[in-house]
Amino acid sequence: KQLREKQKARRYYGVLEGQFKHYYEMAEKMEGIVGSNLLVLLERRLDNVVYRMGMAASRKEARQLVLHAHFTLNGKKVTIPSILVKPGDVIAVKDTDSVKIKELIENMGDRIAPKWLDVDKNGSAKVVAMPERDDIDFEFEEQLIVELYSK
Fold first, then answer.
1. pTM to 2 decimals?
2. Residue 132 to residues 36, 57, 80: CA-CA distances in angstroms?
């Protein structure tokens, strides 16, 4: 049951086993509840933020858009989907000339952005706060993940 819960979280966020373990170790070192910290770290990934902005239909598509340098983070080109955003960071579309990007911007309003993300309809977003456990709309039993790793 613990393994299934971990695999569910890994698949949901699209991270590899080594990355997931690294996030768990980071979450352990943070103050607060380890399971909630883990999910907040995963939620702060740039590919997830692009997905939450409504710029991609899936996290895989968001990851590919970031890898192909379609976004800037605080005005700088970025190609690393695993970068963790923090409050005050601005994520924006780098080039709006592409037909695909124009289509994505038009469809941005289809998804409701979380309260920790201030999304602008021109293809940019600002991280206004750290995500909280309540902001994650998928049900995880993060305690099972913690139990699995603390064996």
1. 0.89
2. 8, 23, 23
pLDDT, tens digit (0-9, with 9 covering 90-100), for 112-141: 888 999 988 888 899 999 998 888 888 889
End-to-end CA distance of the chain: 14
Provide the 8-state DSSP code for 84. B
The string of pLDDT tens digits covering residues 72-92 is: 999 999 999 999 999 999 999
**Residue 117 carries which DSSP code?**
E
- Non-local (6+) Cβ contacts of 6 within 8 A are 20, 144, 145, 148, 149
Q: Which residues contact 19 (CB under 8 A, 6 or more apart)?
A: 82
